[in-house]
Amino acid sequence: MLRVIVLTGVNYLVVFGLWTGGYLGIKFAARSRQSEIDRLRAVAAARQAELSRLRAQYEPHFLFNTLNTISALTAEDPELAREAIRHLSTLLRASLTLDANALVPLSHEWALVGDYLRLEELRFPHLLNIQQDISADAARCRLPAFALQTLVENALKHGSHQTGRPREITLWAGVEANELHLHVTNVGELLRNASAPAGVGLKNLRERLTLLCGPQANCTLEQKSSRLILARLQIPQAQ
Amino acid sequence: MKTLLIDDEPRARQELRRLLGSHPDIEVVGEAEDVSSGIAAVETLRPDLLFLDVLMPDGSGFDLLQQLEATPAVIFCTAFNQHVVQAFEVDALDYLLKPVEPARLAVALDRVRPTLAPTITQKNNFPAPLRSHERIFVREGDRCWFVALGNVHAFESIGNYSKLHLDKAQPLILRSLNTLELRLDPAVFFRASRNTIINLESISAVEPWFGGSLKVTLRTGLSVELSRRQSALFRDLRSW
Fold first, then answer.
1. What is the pLDDT of residue B80?
2. Are A76 and B9 an interchain contact pair (Cβ–Cβ within 8 Å)?
3. Subunit contact A68:B99, Cβ cutoff 8 A
4. Domains and CATH numbers, chain B
5. Which parts of chain A have pLDDT scores under 50?
6. Residues on chain B touching A70 (C-beta within 8 angstroms)
7. Chain B closest CA to A104's CA: distance in Å?
8. CA nearest neighbour of B11 among A127, A188, A191
């Protein structure tokens, strides 16, 4: 009798144990699957947040100084004022519809940079000298929106400023081994101090390059000769 | 009011000139396009009022002010206010946002006018000593403000710098005591010792000290022992 009771007890225990184990196992698997989904969601959200944080924009200084230029032009040369408004509208429209995830053709990016440079010329008359050489292949290559803009802005901002002397910028783009190579050269000296932090614009650009174009893409800044600074952008193109 | 415009963008200066055209008491005496030419223009033109851009290729408007021995009245002009707002306490000075609104410009000018003392025309080439209402620009960490010389109780030498003893702060300026002494009004400021210039109006007590010298205590609590020679000068000055 006692044996029967014990055996029954053991049976119950085994059955109960199996049930519990199975239940916990399924629950655990579900939970770990859920946590994996959550983790991936978090990663995606972080990436999205990161991209929108890095979302490039025209500098407020540039925008308001340009408006001030237009204000002066309305009296001095109304036709030039209208032209400036058209360029500014193009830039604002592009910046409002800019998709931080997008890769855009270089031709598109270069057109926007053209509008930007024209406005800079109106702000600083006769103080800008731009040379460009973009191959047809390169023009079709894709790069993160605003990448060229960042390099050109940097070249203007950190180039040497000798009062009354034009700022010279040279732009070259070509394709090698299915990679877009973009060089922006300007007259100036990199800060000797190696610990000086790279500009926020350049730092953001590097992070965006890695997120959008993978680890092969890169952006470097170097002192090419005693008077020239070279910014280099290298972006592998999808087959 | 002799007015100088300092901005690196020619059209920004032109726009200001145009706006100032409707204020007949403003005479634009010159323009400058960066910090170094701005300093030179202030020194040669001696304007009463500066319109000053914040960001320029060779430095900021603040850098410019720090290098002036005394600043004219200043109205900052900036395209974006983040720098100015960070740097200044409320009411410490006025600034305009570009593009400038004519009504806002009129308000800024109304605020500036009463702070300007009538200009004394100078007869010779020697710069007149700086008077008590004239202001120097000081900067301490993130804070910047103007100090009227009359509100400085003492200047204390610290290397190449001078420490200003004010009511509530003791900022440093990059100017030696010797340079300051040459420009301060001797009727107000007295070289009390090798490393201190005191404001005679800030003195709260004078005591005889050892060997016929004097010890002067200021309202701030700072006390300075005068050398025997300076004590004699001080007695003469005050007819003690």
1. 82
2. no
3. yes
4. 2-115 (3.40.50.2300), 147-238 (2.40.50.1020)
5. 193-196
6. 99
7. 30
8. A127
Nearest to A68 among B8, B58, B98 (CB): B98
Query: pLDDT digits over B62-121, tens only?
Result: 889 989 988 888 999 988 876 655 555 544 567 899 999 999 999 999 988 887 765 554
**8-state DSSP, B145:** E
Q: Do B99 and A122 touch (CB under 8 A)?
A: no
CB neighbourhood size of B200 (10 A): 17
- Partner residue opposite A61 with nearest CB, options B55, B57, B99: B55
For chain A positions 34-93, those within 8 Å of chain B (CB to CB) are 60-61, 63-65, 67-73, 75-76
Quickly list DSSP for A13-42.
HHHHHHHHHHHHHHHHHHHHHHHHHHHHHH
Q: Which two tokens stand for residue A15?
A: 């059955």
Concatenated DSSP letters for A185-207? EEE----S-TTSPPPHHHHHHHH
Q: Please give the pLDDT value at position B91.
A: 47
Which ranges of chain A does DSSP label H, i.e. alpha helix? 2-54, 60-76, 78-97, 106-123, 136-140, 147-158, 200-213
Q: Does domain A55-236 have CATH number 3.30.565.10?
A: yes
DSSP one-letter code for A51: H
CA distance A59 to chain B (A): 10
Using alpha carbons, list the distances in angstroms from residue B214 to A21, B124, B192: 95, 37, 10
Alpha-carbon span B191 to B213, nearest angstrom: 14
Q: What is the pLDDT of residue B88?
A: 59
B57 and A123 within 8 Å at the Cβ level: the answer is no
